[in-house]
Description:
Elements: H1 2-24, E1 27-32, E2 37-41, E3 48-53, E4 58-63, E5 69-76, E6 81-89, E7 94-100, E8 107-113, E9 116-121, E10 126-131, E11 136-142, E12 148-153, E13 159-164, E14 169-175, E15 181-187, E16 192-197, E17 203-208, E18 213-218, E19 223-229, E20 235-240, E21 246-251, E22 256-261, E23 266-272, E24 277-281, E25 288-293, E26 298-303, E27 308-313, E28 319-325
Antiparallel strand pairs: 1-2, 1-28, 2-3, 4-5, 5-6, 6-7, 8-9, 9-10, 10-11, 12-13, 13-14, 14-15, 16-17, 17-18, 18-19, 20-21, 21-22, 22-23, 24-25, 25-26, 26-27
Amino acid sequence: MKTSCVSGLVAIFMAAALASAQQSSPKLLVLNKEEGTLAIVDPESGTILGRVPVGQGPHELVTSSDGKYAFASNYGTGPAPGHTISMVDVAAQKELRRVDIAPLSRPHGLDFAGGKLYFTAEGSKSIARYDPAADRIDWQFETGQSTTHMVLVTKDLKTIFTSNIGSDSVSKIQQGADGKWTQTPIAVGKGPEGIELSPNGREVWSAHSQDGGVSIIDVASGKVTQTINVGTKRSNRIKLTPDGKFALISDLEAGDLVVVDASARKEIRRMPLGRQPEGILIPPPGAHAFVAVNGDDNVAMIDLKTWQVTKRISAGAGPDGLAWVR
Length: 326
């Protein structure tokens, strides 16, 4: 009788410990455009832990600062512009709400800062901010620029940058002491798409999708300080490693990941990944990168010391947006 009780208690404790470990271990989130799902993945084993339906044609993905929630921009399809953003409870593996942003349309780029979600509305030449606690859009700004695609917010929440593909510009949008927001369009190369803030917050890197270049913008002055020719056929996304040493660029048309030495300002490596590499994620501490290889329906895991693909994760059809929760 006593042995049976002890065995039962041991089993309960082991199950609880396993559940706790699963809950606290890092998760890779993969947004699949073609099937409209968010996959929750164990990055070590590649096991799919859950799959959550979201809206049609989801493109970008970001998590809240505490990792409890994920947000997916439901861009829609060519003939059917999207006008919703999915808010997903990661632990519960379910969509909490589908936020209707109408009359704004084609939500795309996302950034989460100061407890709120910033997003582009590409079809409306605008950016806006959603407050998940109040469940409402509490601010919006019309850029007037064509194809306002990606967005990033500085740590002090006073400056926002957007990439405007159709206008060949990056917008610097600042809040003044009077609370009013003003915009400075910065001319860059052809078709700026991927955009990234350097770890020290001093530079914005803009990857051009149509001329193979990268513009480096000084945050303080809002001026282009240098343009690098990396010879990409169609740059899609750009990410800097947490130490600021390297910039990774996905070349959607060539099928490569291009590695740039950030201080030397030159390409040092080109890695063939497959058909249509798109979203890039570099989770802390920066030992690995994940790249969504959209055309081959997998996510490539890359060791940033050896520059080798160490794993391929199949999480769904048409992976693009990636995020990380601990």
